[in-house]
What we know:
By secondary structure, the chain is of the alpha+beta class. Helix content is 31%, strand content 19%. The chain is built from 5 helices and 6 strands. The chain is globular and about 45 Å long. The termini are close together.
Amino acid sequence: MASGLRIPEVLPPNQRRRQLGAAVQSLQWSYAIFWSLSSEEGDLEWGDGFYNGDIKTRKTVLPMELSAEQMGLQRSQQLRELYENLSAGDNNQQEKRPSAALSPEDLTDAEWFYMVCMSFVFAPGQGLPGRTFAAGHHIWLCDADYADSKDFSRSLLAKTVVCFPRADGVLEFGVNELVTT
Length: 181
């Protein structure tokens, strides 16, 4: 399975998101996150992601039919923009947002989970991404929702999570179903 998940080391951000999308959609999992190695502190922080889960409210920029890849790319971008607006503490969000932008009430629990992940940072050895990076090999976590919080503190919805280390960070894939190795 790991051989099908190869993503080149250096990619432009949109290309990385497309690669994550292709991988997570082929697996039919809920999300993919690339935890990027911070050059300053050696921590792992949100690098990019692709959301492939349930959508409560579809808001599109164009009134035409979108492919699954296009919908996932657009939703991932909308979630990123909403996170940036909320984390900036902007009180006049409604005035500045385009009509296709999301608001918190538009989100499913899975979308909230994905969006909250953007705020996490892991030191080497901390949390599942940090442990994976420090160990230098993949870690497959079943029943993630029952995992010890020091292993997987974001266990709100993901039941199965797998992380793969890379020289520049960690790839994480998650799904809200139990998948055994």
